[in-house]
Amino acid sequence: MDKVSGMSHSPTPDVLVIGAGAAGLAAAVALSGAGAGVSLLERKPFAGGRAYSYTHPALGEVIDSQHVLLGCCANLVDLCRLSGASEHIRWYESITFLEPSRADDPPRRSEIKARLLPAPAHNALSFLRAPMLSLADKSRIALGLLGFLRGYPAEDDEPFSAWLKRTGQTERAIRHFWEPIIVGTLNDAFERCSTRYAGQVFHESFLRSAAGGRFGIPSQPLSEFYGQVARLAERQGARLSYRAGVESIEMLPSGLWQATVSDGAGQVNRHTAPDLILALPFEQTARLLATLPEGSPQRERILPLLSHFTHSPITTVHLWLDREVTDLEHAALLDTRIQWMFNKTRIRRREIRENLASGYNLELVISASHAELEQSPKEILRSALTELAGFFPAAGQARVLKSAVLKEARATFSVTAGLDRFRPNAEAAGDHLYLAGDWTRSGWPATMEGAVRSGRLAAEALAGATGSAFRFLTPGLPPAGLMKWLSKGW
Ligand SMILES: Cc1cc2nc3c(=O)[nH]c(=O)nc-3n(C[C@H](O)[C@H](O)[C@H](O)COP(=O)(O)OP(=O)(O)OC[C@H]3O[C@@H](n4cnc5c(N)ncnc54)[C@H](O)[C@@H]3O)c2cc1C
Question: Which band of pLDDT confidence, cut at 50, 70 and 90, is reported for residue 351?
Fold first, then answer.
């Protein structure tokens, strides 16, 4: 690959990237791969940002909040391929939905899986057979999906709750179909998600192609998984500094950007470069922009936009049980607070020899967990165990050897209706200051794919400003089957 013009591997970097989450790593890999000198500053001792794992001090176990990707996450899949992390993704062709047992009825199972028919009908056979929905529910869902067949709205003004009402979705269709998928992917209540992004999820993952809906789960702890992407950036010449929390940024009279790093023990380091990429969550971006002098154009352009962003939480419950209670590797759990189950022992088994003496490890995920933020870990655990036994009767007899409850209050930003007009693009701040992060105008909701796209878009904008026409973005998956003619080709 040709170099980004005017840039070279010199002791002074060409670009400072702040934040080694998926966005910062994607920008660092793109630019270092194109020959730019990159210095990446990360506050934590590991890469991956919110997609992280750590050894729980009291449990002595490595835990993370399971992250999932879909086949349609073309940029994330490509970044994993480049770094070798793709070898540590387990791909699944089907999703199991479980209803809890009621009175004398055992738990009921529905499976959505691509079979035989060409897109957009590839899921139709399993969908028609799924006992979790009645015929009336299915026909409303099918009519609703027709609205996303050719694409999804360009405007994001309508809340998804209004769309559900407008298209006459039944109560059970909402509970057993729209909710597990949308709350799981967009991480918020329907009133706080726009139809544009809900439509994107269904168009890309349910209708456009079977490949787009494949369900991928990293089988390594997440910091190890993203560690491979960080090492790729380093092999390409990028310099990564961990435990380097940036306290302030400023533009020097020379026109260079400077980031001041404090190690917390009184040691201050200053890093300078002609270009700066902030690859941070929106609230951290606001914090650093606020260190620029009042009235400075970059601060004035971006800070007012950030007041429109809000967070949505995710809570995860980590259990080590004295026995295996299911052979399913993952499942959507219907009609409960615990919306998703990951069987971590099975998911990780092939490559990580987990110490089974610690027990069988399950993770339960509660998306949009606003209610759980107010509850104690004990209360959350008690209710999760009761609900779990409704799906897996053996869990009712199992002994809990270890447990942990992890509340992430700032897990994602909410894609509320109308937010798009406040999502800045990479060059919106101007003056060689670029923005990345899942919350920027990536065209995606708060996901790892959105973050990787934003990092690549920032790298493209930066390279473009030097006169180099680099394209780092991977095109989306092509439509398959009949969708070649039906899809508008977004
Ligand atoms: C519990 C949970 C579950 C999730 N599940 C999924 C999922 O299943 N699928 C999915 O696609 N997405 C999921 N997400 C969302 C996904 O993690 C994010 O969208 C994505 O990781 C955001 O990446 P980012 O690079 O934009 O930001 P971040 O990951 O937040 O990265 C920003 C980095 O900047 C660093 N930083 C902050 N301030 C400073 C500073 N002053 N100086 C230096 N460094 C700094 C941070 O330490 C961090 O490493 C989940 C998130 C959470 C929390």
Answer: low
Tell me if 50 CB under 6 Å of ligand 1: yes
Beta carbon of 330 within 6 Å of any ligand 1 atom: no
* Contacts of 428-432 spanning 24+ positions with Cβ under 8 A: 428/301, 428/302, 429/289, 429/298, 429/301, 429/302, 430/297, 430/298, 430/301, 431/251, 431/297, 431/298, 432/255, 432/257, 432/274, 432/275, 432/276, 432/462, 432/465
Distance from Cα 39 to the centre of ligand 1, integer Å? 19
| Confidence category of residue 468, pLDDT binned at 50, 70, 90 | confident
Residue 287 CB less than 6 A away from ligand 1? no
Provide the whole-model pTM: 0.96
Sheet holding 215-218, edge to edge: 69-70, 215-218, 89-92
Give residue for tokens 């940024």.
249
Q: What is the DSSP string of 110-138?
A: EEEE--SSPTTSTTHHHHHH-TTS-HHHH
Burial (CB count within 10 angstroms: exposed 0-12, middle 13-18, buried 19+), residue 36:
buried
**DSSP alpha helix (H) spans, 290-331:** 297-306
Rounded to the nearest angstrom, the distance between the alpha carbon of 411 and the centre of ligand 1 is 8
pLDDT band at 477 (very low <50, low <70, confident <90, very high): very high
Question: How far, in Å, is the centroid of ligand 1 from the Cα of 141?
Answer: 33
Q: Closest Cα to residue 15, out of 308, 316, 259, 261?
A: 259
Q: Distance from the CA of 310 to the center of ligand 1, in angstroms?
A: 15
pLDDT more than 70, % of the chain: 96
> What H or E segment, with its residue span, contains residue 340?
strand 340-343
Does residue 438 have its Cβ closer than 6 Å to ligand 1?
yes
Provide the percentage of residues in the chain whose pLDDT is more than 90: 91
Residue 131 corresponds to which tokens in the numbers above? 């006992």
- Domains annotated for the chain, with CATH where assigned, are 15-50+222-310+416-465 (3.50.50.60), 108-213 (no CATH), 311-413 (3.90.660.10)
Query: Best mutation site among 448, 454, 456 for ligand 1, i.e. most ligand atoms within 8 A of its Cβ?
Result: 448
Rounded Cα–Cα distance for residues 404 and 434 (Å): 38
Residue nearest to ligand 1 atom 36, measured at CA: 19
| Beta carbon of 314 within 6 Å of any ligand 1 atom | yes
- Are 165 and 190 a contacting pair, CB within 8 Å? no
